[in-house]
Amino acid sequence: MLPLCSRVLLSHPFSPMSLMALREQLNMLVNSMYIEGLLDQQFQQLQMLQDASSPGFVAEVINLFCEDAERILTELTKLVDQAVVDFQKVDAYVHQLKGSSSSVGAQNVKLACIQFRQFCEENNKDGCLNALNVVKHHYYLLRNKFDTMLQLEQRIQAYDSKQQN
Amino acid sequence: MTVEERKGHLMREEGGQNDQFPVGMRVLAVDDDPTCLRVLEALLLRCRYHGAKAESFDLLKEGFNVDHFVPVTTTNQATVALKLLRENRDKFDLVISDVHMPDMDGFKLLELVGLEMDLPVIMLSVNGETKTVMKGIAHGACDYLLKPVRVEELKNIWQHVVRRRKFSHKDYSNFDNGEESERHQIVSSEGGQDLNISGSTNQNGKLSRKRKDQNEEDEDDCEENVQENEDLTTQKKPRVVWSIDLHRKFVAAVNQLGIDKAVPKRILELMNVERLTRENKYRLYLKRLSTVASQQANMVATFGGSDPSYLHMSSLDGFGSLHVLAASGHLPALTSLQSSKVLDRAITGGLGNHGFTSSRIVQVGHNNTSTPCNDLNRFQHINLPGNQHGSLLQGIPTSLELEQLQPRRIQEANSHFPGGFSDNKLATATPGSSFVNGTNSSFISQTLRQQAHPRRFINHSSIRATPISTHPFHVGSECSSHFPDLGRCKDTRKCAVPLTAYATNTSSMGSFTTDDECPKFKDNLTISQRDTNIPTISSTSFMAAPPRDPSIGRDRQCQANSSIGRTMLLPTTMDREMKFVNFSSAGNSKERLEPKDIYIDENDITISSFSSSTMSNNFMIDPFSGNQMMNNSHYNKRMDKSIISLTTASSSILQENFKIDDSTVDDPQKDTYDLEITKLQGGIVIGGCNLDDLVNSSMIKPERDEISLMDSDTGCDFYPLGACM
């Protein structure tokens, strides 16, 4: 659940919160994500790549990642649910997810994928089922925070442009 | 757009010599994962690369134009990428591709791109297992990056393009076998099967073999080499890239043939590498020699540049040498190995630049000869002037000469060598070639020596263009003077020895230095003329056996066999004059091997003596057995480095080689090496500049451990070891 303050914030998009406060909130959020292991250094690289010439870069990447990840998770759910699991296919998908999560800096998700692959190699269906759940858990957790992050960013940018205008 | 285009165009045309080269480099990125692709694109843009941007092929078709600050071209389908490349061949400088893709295997794409378009390809994957990486390298990837990719890594990838360009622009005309296909073949060889290389000169194979052996010793080096083994098929002639595969093949071939019979030809055959001609190797070798105080180059050169791949190897050589060096370092016992490595390196270097690699390879074959024999052998082989390499070179110089010299040498060598090489090893190879081998061996042994024996040796007479075949290059003999007929011998020694702490008084080597011996061989780069102290004959001066004609001889010999290893490979048919690459690295080497010299005809370099090359490992003819402070390992490293350096950048080659030595060499020794190396630079005027480059590269760069092949800015750092020059 989003913290109360965030909810309040989000529900009042035009609250008089200052730009600085917004920024501070965003920083705190991101920092907490780092601390909790949701994000790693790679995300910093992404942040670094965002600049004046590509202001929406981070948002773009995050969106791409989320779309891709959800697609993969859906596929995985289907595959693992079958009576006889095609572990190779499963492994291929997990590999993909591992790649994209590492590109975006989604550390927990990536680690969960690594474990998932272990079970795949062992052809362990139960293990895969569990691992899939773990991956999903981490992913959705991350996704929520990303949502908040993006909203904050949007507000900040709106604020900025408003101020500039 | 014009500006951009022009820029891009410029870059392309001018081979990226432009200072701003990295900027505007056109990259095509392929990855099925949209997230990664986007991130990669942003990173590449950040590095200021640009290219046409299109998310899909269609888009590309419409809006494709390499101009403006268009973001990097990206596509998520390999098939699309291929199409793009085929239709716009000259619009891209580099391809980055993921390994796992749904429509086509990344490796396959890699092969196809490398084969058809001769573009550098970088693999990308989240999977970093060694075997996968190896596979990538085997398929010809210039580099293998792990996801997530960082911007720092991407900032360096332009090197691959430059390197490739450099090679293509190099005057490799001499190297016949530059067929691109060869390279591809080599590259494509699956899993680096050693014998996959089609028909290329065996030499290359041999060299590679040698190297492989050595490489085997040094796994880590392999990686480096692999990296270095970029596809240098940019040349018109498909150059043979001395990839690790080749190397492996080479080594395997050598092993198969047995040291005694490890004639370059045979090796080539075995290697079945395409285009691997001895010439290539020789050439590379020569180059190497000149650059690298003949240490490794000699070795490689001896291989007779046969392998075009060597040429390529030049870049690879860097590796090779490294390996060799590294290997040598590690295998003290295997002195021969070491040398082979060096040879390999030399050879490979020789091919391209690394004359060394070949030499190394040669050495490898002989690893087994350990101990005194080896030393002797090495010495003999290495007769590189003063330099360890020198000995190799010496051996190489025209086998014919060798023979003649041999008697002399042997005597000398005997005197010098503890083991009394005399015949040894170097000579073992066919007389004609034996010389080469000798040189190689000496070279190799030098290198090996280095490792095993810190001795300094080499400079001894070994450089003297060891009278070809068996005579261990005058081991001990003060060299220069000895080269009686050789004239050519100019002291190839000079070069070779850089690695080993030739400290042995360069005098021995120095003796050559003064070209007095071979007046005609000015080219002989007598490395270090400096008779003394500069053991650094760094440029394994191959004693260019001017057999045929002085000028020619020189060319051949001049192989700055830094890759002394090469010498080993000299084909038995030393019809070519033994090119002794006299790397008179010693500063004095005014002689500077003439560029031609550096290109030792690979043919000449008979590797036959290869078997004896085992000795070569020891390059280190350690005249100063005691002195060889430089741990062989060091040397090996150096050599490798040098070799590698040769390969990487013609110029840098020398440096590298030398570099390696320096680092390891103890102070006193260092000087020697440095000298050598530096000498090489001066003296080895290979191909005009190659030698210098080689020398430079071979010059002892203090970086020993890293054998930063190619990438290391080997830039001629001559090691100003005081002594030299």
From TrEMBL, chain A:
Annotated HPt domain residues: 54-159
One GO term describing the cellular component: cytosol
A Pfam family this chain is assigned to: Hpt
Modified residues (Phosphohistidine): 95
InterPro entries associated with the record: AHP1-5/YPD1, HPT_dom_sf, Sig_transdc_His_kin_Hpt_dom
CDD domains: HPT
Key words of the record: Cytokinin signaling pathway, Cytoplasm, Nucleus, Phosphoprotein, Two-component regulatory system
Gene Ontology biological process terms in this record: cytokinin-activated signaling pathway; phosphorelay signal transduction system; positive regulation of cytokinin-activated signaling pathway
Protein localization: Cytoplasm, Cytosol; Nucleus
GO molecular function, one term: histidine phosphotransfer kinase activity
Domain notes for this protein: Histidine-containing phosphotransfer domain (HPt) contains an active histidine that mediates the phosphotransfer.
Annotated function: Functions as a two-component phosphorelay mediators between cytokinin sensor histidine kinases and response regulators (B-type ARRs). Plays an important role in propagating cytokinin signal transduction through the multistep His-to-Asp phosphorelay. Functions as a positive regulator of the cytokinin signaling pathway. May play a regulatory role in salt and drought tolerance during plant development.
Protein name stated in the entry: Histidine-containing phosphotransfer protein
Automatic annotation (TrEMBL), chain B:
Single annotated GO MF: DNA binding
Subcellular location: Nucleus
Residue intervals of the Response regulatory domain: 26-162
Stretches for region Disordered: 172-232, 537-557
GO CC list: nucleus
Alphabetical list of CDD domains matching this protein: REC_typeB_ARR-like
Keyword Transcription: yes
Main localization category: nucleus
Bias-annotated ranges (Polar residues): 186-206
This protein's UniProt keywords: Activator, DNA-binding, Nucleus, Phosphoprotein, Transcription, Transcription regulation, Two-component regulatory system
Listed GO biological process terms: cytokinin-activated signaling pathway; phosphorelay signal transduction system
Database matches in InterPro entries: ARR-like (IPR045279), CheY-like_superfamily (IPR011006), Homeodomain-like_sf (IPR009057), Myb_dom_plants (IPR006447), Response_reg_B-typ_pln (IPR017053), Sig_transdc_resp-reg_receiver (IPR001789)
Residues recorded with modification 4-aspartylphosphate: 98
Record field: compositional bias (Acidic residues): 215-231
Protein name: REC
